[in-house]
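User: quick one, fold this
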Amino acid sequence: MRKSTFAGIIGLSLLASNALAQSESEFSYEGWTGHKRTNDPDNGCIMGKHVTKDIYFVVYANANEGFGFGVSVSSWDLQVGEEWSGSVTFDDHEPILLTGTVIEPEIVLFPGGAEEDSVAPLLSSSRHLRLSYGHSRFGLSLKGSSKALELLGDCAENRRNQSPHQVSEKQARTSPSLTSLPIKSGYYALTDGTCEEGFGPNTIYTDGKTLSWPSSGCRFEHISQTGQSTYEVKQTCGRNSDDIGTEQATYTVTNKTSFKMKSGTWEEKGNYCEPSTLPVVDRERVSPPIYAPSNLGLEPSSSSIVEDSNAIYQDRSVVLREQDNARGAEDVARSDASSNAQAGIKSSSGVEPTQYRNPADSVPRGNAITLSSDDEDAVKQLVGLHLRDETSARFRNFAAAEFPDGTYTVCGFVNSKNQFGAYAGYTLFYSNYRPDTKSFTYFMMANNENIAALCKLNGVVFQ
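Assistant:
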């Protein structure tokens, strides 16, 4: 494991993250923004990339080979000069231990090394990094970092010239901002999808200012109209737990029920799905499945939309219980009909044909129990290992069933923050749990009827 120590960017004064986000930038590229540092004794430059809420990843460079990186959090009020420890991991490389310094009440800076020990090549060539500092950590996509570091170096050496792309991006930012695209909110089948497939990889939900898939999404930061039916959109997208980046996209909207989108090599076409063409689970969904809520159009005093409300959850729970009861009645009716049919066949032939047996009869069924507080805490910790941000996890409706071998089936709902810092909604999980070793032998998590059915077949009873 490599170790780097703070080696001398003394007296450096950086902008707080809110100033970094709001100041007139000298350059910007793929979500990275930077500028010359005012009153910096080494005439250096600083750039940053938004992580979540008031957190920014920052990089500093000057013409004297000074190079550092760190984190800026506008809500911090730290003691300048205080020493902090941390670590950084690039892709699958070994973690690099860090020792940094608080150089502003809002900023901790770690050394970037020099020459062969510099992390600049890793920062330039890697796909993502994980930065730990104090008791916190975050993951960050490094999309565009190679070009952004070149621009940072040009800024530090006073070689910077704006490219046509940067000028276009700046013009889009300074145009009047719209609160949403002029399209109808709902589900849209993408280029390779159909409405009948339902919410999934090729059928999304949009409210005109977000795009949502089941486990990823895009949040619109700025929308400006550039033509009769064309719009420039600055959007932040995340496609897995760590890959998140800001990019420019062009949307073409010819009517309220269809759109085309192009961002680099990524192109999509979306067509609105009438509710009658969607699966029942999508038609009856209580709240929109928005993965990364946008703040466009919200008043400063508005409540945060990343927090899901108890009222919405309660409404959703009522619908889920009603659906579960209805399916239960249907299952009983089908089971009775199947049993009667099998009884008739058996009475006439004296043999019970295997092809008429109910597959559900072969699924082991336990006895419903209430978890002890110790086991419930252990399950929460185990589920947390499968989440991006286990510290934000919220749990509801724990239910369990015990089997003769002493193992449990444990089901429940969990909600945690995604890479956008947003609660994306409660997701059902199924697990096989060993109370003697406090471990899972099997775990899966998804919002689909198969998991709910499996929990029920194993004897789990939701209250």
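User: anything notable?
Assistant: The chain has eight helices and 24 strands.
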